[in-house]
Amino acid sequence: MSFTVYLSGEIHTDWREEIQRGAKAAGLDIVFTAPVTDHPASDAAGDHLGGTESQFWRDHQSAKVNAIRTRTLIEKADLVVVRFGDQYKQWNAAFDAGYCAALGKPYVTLHEADIVHPLKEVDAEAQAWCTTTDQVVEILRYVLKA
Hints:
Blueprint: E1 3-9, H1 15-25, E2 30-33, H2 39-43, H3 55-76, E3 79-83, H4 91-103, E4 107-110, H5 120-125, E5 128-130, H6 133-145
Parallel strand pairs: 1-2, 1-3, 3-4, 4-5
Helix pairs in contact: 1-6, 3-4
């Protein structure tokens, strides 16, 4: 079975690469997709639409352009992994999880135990909560090879 997995969330560590390496080592047939992880490029996604008078409108334009990619890739995914890091608040990741829940799209969360409480609603809709990328890979292995 072939699978498409969208890797949502935190962009400041190499968690995506860890999952991709683990899936490759396990011989899993997976296509991985992700948002734009170049922070300045993501922030500037709507700049070509014209200047704005405030940071709010610049962010608004770029968020809408980024949403084209995000929504399309989430809708095409068989599973979404939503990573919450400890350095920044990933409001966009929480939104992606909510979008998955609204679509009935399976997702798993990946985060440390110290943020269980603020993510209780996000985790309640997830099919699993993982604390390591190895756990994510094991879920993928089970789903594809069981």
